[in-house]
Design goal:
Layout: E1 8-12, H1 17-33, E2 38-43, H2 48-51, E3 59-62, H3 69-76, E4 80-83, H4 91-97, E5 102-106, H5 110-115, E6 118-120, H6 131-136, H7 158-167, E7 175-179, H8 191-203, E8 207-212, H9 224-232, E9 236-240, H10 243-250, E10 255-259, H11 267-270, E11 277-281, H12 298-307
Parallel strand pairs: 1-2, 1-4, 2-3, 4-5, 5-6, 7-8, 7-9, 9-10, 10-11
Helix pairs in contact: 1-10, 3-4, 7-9
């Protein structure tokens, strides 16, 4: 176990939005154990606005195709680099070349294996653990891994909250924000299912509005920060386990998450975290990515949505001004 009074850590999470949200527990654990720690993130440009909503960050650095990783890390001079994005295998060799003393990675790619000082060999697929717990495993060199991860918590300022309300002012409450599908491998309902379900939700008193992806929405496309503002202006969010839904839970907006049964994409591994999250799995395991989710009867979802109208879920989304 390593001990530091003060440490500078670069957390690399250069994949998708949902992966970044789930990994926020790593920063929470570091600051819990070492409040003086200086936390930097290396992320893709399109997900960087999410970190504007997270207090306690010392720096956000962008991973672009032309990024000189060795130069970036040399200038930053971190004590440790945690490469949570195992597919981005250039980060750990660059950290070694920059002289970083602690370099943590999954055992993927011979170059990364040879360059890391600490490797995670255990497969994520067979552990039965949530991805937030798998992310905390990168803190093993410090003795800070294990246990229950803190749920992600993002906070909007008053200006951003007002922006979302203004953009959705024509849609009365209760607003049901809809995320129809994601970019990852998880299951999601078909467009035909959504067309039928939105009518059912509207007939039950909700006012549904598709927020994401932009090509499915009638709203004017916005940047990621604008999407978050719209999410925060809704009374509930429904959708599969994907980035915007994960972010909604972190913004403390009530979430009804629709998920499949395959172990690799089941709630035990990928469910959004939060006190205002409900998960519904479709009835049968076969045909997970080819219509399985369409077996959900939207009428059966109404009691779950109606629960959001009762305490402690009722009322407008609870966010904290910064």
């Amino acid at each position: 176990m390593l001990e530091f009074d003060r440490i500078r850590i670069l957390i690399a999470r250069t994949d998708a939005l949902g992966d970044l949200v789930i990994s926020l527990s790593v920063q929470a654990r570091i600051l819990e154990r070492c409040p003086q720690a200086e936390i930097h993130w290396l992320v893709r440009p399109y997900v960087a606005p999410l970190l504007d909503l997270l207090p306690g960050i010392s720096g956000v650095h962008l991973r672009e195709p032309e990024t000189d990783l060795r130069k970036l890390i040399l200038n930053l001079k971190p004590d440790a680099v945690l490469n949570l994005s195992h597919r981005d295998k250039a980060i750990i060799p660059a950290a070694r070349d920059a002289g970083v003393p602690i370099r943590v990675a999954r055992a993927r790619g011979i170059g990364q294996i040879l360059a890391a000082t600490h490797l995670l060999w255990q497969s994520r697929l067979s552990t039965g653990r949530h991805e937030a717990q798998n992310a905390l495993a990168f803190l093993a060199p410090f003795g800070w891994d294990g246990g229950c991860p803190a749920r992600p918590h993002l906070a909007f300022g008053e200006t951003e909250l007002q922006r979302g309300q203004q953009e959705l002012v024509s849609i009365p409450h209760p607003r049901l924000g809809v995320v129809t599908r994601g970019s990852g491998a998880g299951a999601f309902p078909s467009a035909v299912w959504w067309a039928k379900s939105l009518i059912v939700f509207a007939d039950s008193g909700w006012n549904p509005v598709i927020l994401s992806p932009p090509e499915d929405s009638t709203l004017k496309p916005v940047e990621l920060a604008g999407l978050f503002a719209r999410i925060a202006a809704c009374d509930a969010i429904i959708g599969p386990s994907t980035g915007p839904v994960q972010a909604a839970a972190a913004l403390d907006v009530p979430v009804l998450c629709l998920m499949g049964l395959r172990p690799n994409h089941a709630p035990s591994r990928w469910a959004p975290q939060g006190d205002r999250v409900q998960v519904v799995q479709y009835p049968r395991p076969e045909a997970d990515l080819s219509g399985g989710m369409d077996r959900l009867d939207p009428v059966d979802l109404l009691p779950h949505l109606d629960r959001f109208r009762l305490p402690p879920f009722s009322g407008y989304p609870k966010t904290e001004a910064t």
